[in-house]
Specification:
- The complex is a heterodimer.
- Chain A is mostly helical.
- Chain A contains eight helices and no strands.
- In chain B, strand 6, helix 6 and strand 7 form a beta-alpha-beta unit.
- Chain B is built from ten helices and 13 strands.
- Chain B is of the alpha/beta class.
- The chains are: A mainly alpha, B alpha/beta.
Chain lengths: 227, 294
């Protein structure tokens, strides 16, 4: 673990983590602003506070719990970027002793951080569900986290940035599809939304495991390959 | 001549460019300039020697003993700095210090701070240090040079270190390189590349000239200055002298060109003056000659 942390630090110093936290704090500030705006509207329109908070949290949670693991995926993406010759820093990292080993360890470390963001997202979701029990999307966060990290582990070795982007698109498409599907499924009573999410998490977990195995096999050769 | 680095049969093949086959010796205790036009293969050669790019074939021996750049001791003893964007764009001096301290035993964080201050760029002590992307090319290069000089090494490999520096800073860099060699008591060496040797002429003891992936000439600068001459004469004497000129330039009244010094007497008999070339003149003359016979 110490070696993994060391490699992560070599690749990110403090800048990448600071950037990740800055983005999260920025988005959180926007959410707080919107929440305050909502409270103001609630009082001026004399809305029922219970239904206001229930509606607010139901809307707030899916977007926020997707954002947290997305930050973890982007952190992982930042490490993979250093395997592209056009990325500043490429030559510095490639000139280090045992750089391919550091790269592999940094990828493992970034995977752990990405998974932790998934846990944090799920935790926030679980806490908020105590206040709004009818909220349905507690498993959205781990699904996004696992799918995003898994796909990033596959696409991180692709040289063409457009192809990499296209590979990551399913994460956003998947979130949109799941959220939409669950709302209509709940209304129609056809299928339990929880079941859909459990299936989504299982599929995402399989994608994640495959991606992790792929990158662990591939990353050293990919780092040392001619580009 | 004792070598700090030797390469035998070194090649690198790309689809549109081939480096080599190169036979190379970098003398120990001196500063070696790798001179060539853009696209000559200088950066490719440096990248191979520093383990950034893989060679296709050949053998490189470092410090007279190790055959592999993957050897940790070899990496520790080589200080490498690329020509541009060496460090990630979002990094500040503090990020560089954190990462390099983790990566190298030989990195001295205090020395790095001192060198940053000496080179007048943001250091760790700066209140709000600018990230690389907010700095000019010259300041980025200064920061990278401070980082590489902050390590205790036996060989410095600098790719185009002077290209983005202003003349005053280039002069200071030459002084710093001299200090590095003097501190080493003949044990430390420098290899640096440049496509414009004029501003770093004083820094070079040994020169390697490259053209289209091949070495066209190499040797100690003083020896090369004895081997070649710059011939200068009136335009009407050009036809008589042209067979002895390796390369030349002329206008309606005068011509000058590079020639072998063994032809100095014959040229003098024709009324053509000759003088020892500067490294810059040698560089232009040899590269022009290589272009003509290519």
């Amino acid at each position: 673990m110490k070696e993994i942390l060391k490699s992560v630090r070599i690749f990110t110093a403090q800048q990448t983590i600071t950037s990740m936290l800055t983005v999260l704090v920025g988005f959180l500030s926007a959410y707080v602003f919107i929440a305050l705006l909502g409270v103001v509207v609630m009082f001026t329109e004399k809305a029922d506070p219970d239904s206001f908070f229930s509606g607010f949290i139901s809307g707030f949670v899916p977007s926020f719990t997707v954002l947290i693991p997305a930050a973890g995926v982007f952190f992982l993406s930042a490490i993979y970027n250093y395997n592209q010759p056009i990325t500043p820093g490429y030559k510095y990292f490639h000139s280090l002793h045992d750089s391919e080993e550091h790269f592999k360890r940094a990828i493992i470390g970034a995977n752990i951080i990405a998974l932790l963001t998934g846990v944090v997202g799920t935790g926030i979701n679980a806490v908020l569900q105590i206040f709004v029990p009818e909220m349905l999307n507690i498993l959205l966060s781990p699904a996004v986290c696992l799918l995003g990290t898994g796909l990033m582990n596959f696409s991180g070795h692709i040289k063409n940035s457009l192809v990499r982007f296209i590979m990551i698109m399913p994460i956003f498409m998947g979130v949109g599809f799941l959220t939409g599907y669950m709302s209509s499924a709940e209304e129609d009573g056809e299928i339990l939304p929880d079941t859909v999410l459990i299936i989504a998490v299982i599929v995402s977990a399989l994608v994640y495991i495959a991606g992790l195995v792929f990158t662990l096999i591939r990353c050293k050769a990919s780092w040392r390959s001619d580009k | 001549m004792e070598s700090i680095l030797t390469a035998k049969g070194l090649t690198k093949k790309y689809s549109k460019f081939t480096l080599g086959e190169l036979e190379l010796e970098i003398p120990k205790g001196f500063a070696t300039a790798l001179i060539g036009a853009n696209g000559a293969g200088k950066t490719t050669l440096i990248d191979i020697l520093c383990g950034v790019t893989l060679k296709t074939s050949g053998e490189v021996t470092y410090f007279g003993e190790s055959k592999s750049i993957e050897d940790e001791n070899v990496r520790e003893r080589i200080g490498y700095c690329a020509s541009s964007s060496f460090f990630p764009q979002g990094w500040t001096a503090k990020d560089i210090a954190i990462s390099m301290e983790m990566a190298y035993r030989s990195f001295d964080r205090n020395k790095f701070r001192e060198l940053c201050e000496k080179l007048e760029v943001d250091s760790e002590a700066t209140k709000k240090p600018k990230p690389m992307y907010k700095q000019s090319d010259g300041n980025r290069m200064r920061t990278s040079l401070a980082a590489v000089f902050a390590r205790t090494t036996d060989l410095l490999v600098l790719d185009e270190p002077g290209s983005s520096l202003d003349p005053l800073m280039r002069d200071r860099l030459c002084d710093r390189m001299r200090e590095y060699l003097d501190d080493g008591d003949g044990e430390k060496s420098i290899l640096f590349s440049t496509h414009n040797i004029a501003d770093m002429e004083n820094a070079a003891d040994y020169a390697i000239f490259m053209d289209k992936g091949k070495i066209i000439e190499q040797g100690f600068v003083e020896d090369l200055k004895e081997k070649y001459i710059i011939a200068r004469g009136a335009a009407e004497d050009y036809d008589k002298a042209k067979d002895m000129l390796l390369s030349h330039s002329r206008n309606r009244t005068v011509f000058d060109g590079l020639a072998l010094s063994e032809n100095a007497e014959k040229l003098a008999a024709m009324g053509v003056d000759s003088e020892a070339p500067t490294l810059q003149q040698l560089s232009i003359g040899l590269l022009k000659y290589a272009e003509e016979i290519r």
